[in-house]
Amino acid sequence: MEFISCSRELLEWTVRRLLAARANVQLLEGHQVTGVVTSADRRRVTGVGLCAHRPADGEAEAVEELAGGLVVDASGRHSKVPEWLAALGYEPPVEERVSAFLGYASRDYAIPGSFRGDWRAIMLQAKPPKTAHTGYLF
User: Fold this and answer.
1) Can you name the residues that pair with 65 across neighbouring β-strands?
2) For residue 37, what are the contacts with CB-CB under 8 A and spacing of at least 6?
3) Nearest-CA neighbor of 101 among 122, 129, 75?
4) What is the mean pLDDT of the chain?
5) Where are the strands (E) in 41-80, listed by range?
6) Which one of 7, 75, 115, 116 is separated from 30 by 20 to 30 angstroms, measured CA to CA?
7) pTM for the full model?
8) Is the pLDDT of residue 46 over 90?
9) Distance (Å, rounded) from C-alpha 121 to C-alpha 136?
């Protein structure tokens, strides 16, 4: 079995770097989305409202609009889109939560000088319902 593994930080950095290299992608740092912008009839999302992060004195920066042909909310479980849609008069989407009962932990260990293994990784596969844990050693 072959697989590739990396830290979440490395994955996010790599995706960000690849996106930043695309001619049709612009990264806008130091801003936060304040809401969605819609067409006059409020039937189509046409962009987002943005403001610069608030300065140290607490005053809000002016809100500007950023138009987009496709608007994707990738903010995860803390998304404000349901609130923004409700403010526009839409029913918030029905929320469904599914627990995958997933958790993980990681730790670095030093390889003992006496170690003479000819392997690079070990995978301990779960066998539900008897065994619920899986482990990897790289």
Assistant:
1) 49
2) 45, 46, 47, 48, 49, 65, 67
3) 129
4) 85
5) 45-52, 64-67
6) 7
7) 0.59
8) yes
9) 7
